[in-house]
Structures are given as structure tokens and as C-alpha cells.
Amino acid sequence: MRTFELEYPHALVFNELPETVTAIGFFDGIHCGHQRVIQTAVSEAKNRNMESAVITFFPHPSVVLKKDAQHVKYITPLREKKEILKRLGVDRLYIIKFNKALASLSPQGFIDHFIKGLNIKHVVAGFDFSYGHKGKGNMETIKEHAADAFSYTTISKVELDNEKISSTRIRECLKKGQIEKANELLGRPLIVDGIVIKGEQRGKALGYPTANIDTNRDALLPKTGVYAVKIIYKNERYEGMASLGVNPTFTPDLLEPVLEVNIFDYNNDLYGDELLVEFHAFIREEQKFAGAAQLIKKIAEDEVKIRNYFAKNC
């Protein structure tokens, strides 16, 4: 998959670009609804003997459009988004920088520059996709703006349990620790990646050595607590348990949650290596214990629960 980072106005030359079928949207999470849009574009591209593409945006529009500029965390940070799109068979990825210039572009200007200008012959988007200044362009106005230069497919609402699958709904599930429902909406386990760094080595002293993971600052983490997880390391998968929190028993003044994983039946040194952590089930809330003995007892109970969980849900 070739990746192009663009901003308005882009400098790509129309005549040098292949004819493509593109899926377009922000696609945070690349959940089941997003996957239907993208897979439709990939399939249509094959039928037309064209390349498939995805147009997405970065950063989130709220960073630019809200008066108090903020840092947004993503269900799928850009790096993970790219990996998922590769697996979905996308040939080209256009990442458009969302800035004030783009936000001010008229719907017709957006279509002329980023659809016609990229030699796109067919567009696939969700029914609620909007474009141009204040989102005035949508899948009802796109025919007028296309002016027969390209065709399009509108994907209708994708639901689970009679409710629309959306990034907002997934964010709410993660906030509440409803990881299994979030995974159902995503169509895969939530993944958080990072590099193993030196910690306090307290877990080793307790008999449960943990890998402290320096997570991507752009990654949206679920609710604090203890989770059943699978760890992907050098293409191997391991079962384990994760603690996400401020460790109130020993470090009550910690402001940001820390992700620590105990990999079952694994004791090798992982410092400096990358781990991918799949979240599978929420086990319990983070707790403060009177001392190490109580904590060790609870961790042992957690391990039994998680091993049983994976024995039933492998």
C-alpha cells in the first residue's frame, strides 16, 4: 500500500495518478461499518480493474474547529490504521491534513481538488459522510458536485443490536470498560501497542513480573482496571493479564494510567521491544490494597479467572 500525506492545495499531478475507486471518511476505529465501506471500494476496484484507495483525514476536525484546541486520542492511531488498511487490501492511502484551509473549502472545491483532482472514478462513503465548509456537502449533494466526472455508492447504516455502529458508541464502551461489546463493534480485539520500558520492578518482587508499556500518546485507552489480554510479540501470541491504572496501593499520586502486562508462562527480557496488547475482557476495577499480601492474593485470583476465560474463549 502506498501512502500519500496531502494538504490543501496538494501537488500531485492528475495525469500521473491511476484511475481509482476510493472509500472516504475519517474511519477512526475502522469498525464493522467502516469495513463495509472500505471492502465495497476494494471489491468495486477489482471489478473495474482499477486501484483501490482510502481517503482519510488527520488530525480529528475537532482539533481545528473547536476554539479550545485539544489533543484527541484515537481508537486507531495512524500507524494502526495503516496496518488494518493493508490487511483489507487497499492499494493507496491518502491522508489529508485537516486544517483551517481545508475546513474553509467549499463542497465543490473539495470535490474538484480531492476527488476529481486525484483521478478518482468511483467514490464509496457512508450515508452520513459530509464534506466541504461546515459539512454542507453530503451524499445527497454529491451527484451535483460530481457533474458526471465520477460515480458513487452510498453505504447505508450498519447496526448491531438495532443501534448504529459508530466510533462514538465504541468510545462509550471503552469508557465503561465494556471491552467485549467494543470488540464486537470493531470486528476484532482492541489493540494498544508500545515499547517495553523499565519500571519499578515491583511485579517481579511480588512473583508476577510485568512488562511496563510506553503506549502511543495518541491511543485511546479503555477504562482503568484489570483485563484479560493477549500479547503479540515477534508474531507469537501469548495469553496474559494487564493492569491499566495508577497503582493506588504503591503510587497513589500517579496522574496518568500505566499499562503493565504479565505474560503467562514467559520470563524473557523484553526491554526495548515492541508489544501489541489485545484487550479481550474486563476482569475488575482497579483497587487499593492494605499491603503486598492482599495484592498478591487478588492477582492470583485474577490469573485463575483469566486462564479460565481463555480456556472457554480461545
TrEMBL record:
Transmembrane segments: none
Domain of life: Bacteria
Keywords of the record: ATP-binding, FAD, Flavoprotein, FMN, Kinase, Multifunctional enzyme, Nucleotide-binding, Nucleotidyltransferase, Transferase
GO molecular function, one term: riboflavin kinase activity
InterPro entries recorded: FAD_synthase, Riboflavin_kinase, Riboflavin_kinase_bac, Riboflavin_kinase_bac/euk, Riboflavin_kinase_dom_sf, Rossmann-like_a/b/a_fold
Gene3D superfamilies: HUPs, Riboflavin kinase-like
Pathway(s) this gene product operates in, as recorded in its UniProt entry: Cofactor biosynthesis; FMN biosynthesis; FMN from riboflavin (ATP route): step 1/1; Cofactor biosynthesis; FAD biosynthesis; FAD from FMN: step 1/1
Catalytic activity: FMN + ATP + H(+) = FAD + diphosphate; riboflavin + ATP = FMN + ADP + H(+)
Cleavable signal peptide: none
Pfam families documented for this protein: FAD_syn (PF06574), Flavokinase (PF01687)
Annotated EC: 2.7.1.26, 2.7.7.2
CDD domains with a match to the protein in the record: FAD_synthetase_N
Broad enzyme group: transferase
Disulfide bond recorded as keyword: no
GO biological process annotation, one example: FAD biosynthetic process
Ranges where the Riboflavin kinase domain occurs: 185-311
Family recorded in the similarity comment: Belongs to the ribF family.
Cross-referenced PANTHER family: RIBOFLAVIN KINASE, RIBOFLAVIN KINASE/FMN ADENYLYLTRANSFERASE
Function: Catalyzes the phosphorylation of riboflavin to FMN followed by the adenylation of FMN to FAD.
Name of the molecule in the record: Riboflavin biosynthesis protein
Organism listed in the record: Virgibacillus salarius
Organismal lineage: Bacteria, Bacillati, Bacillota, Bacilli, Bacillales
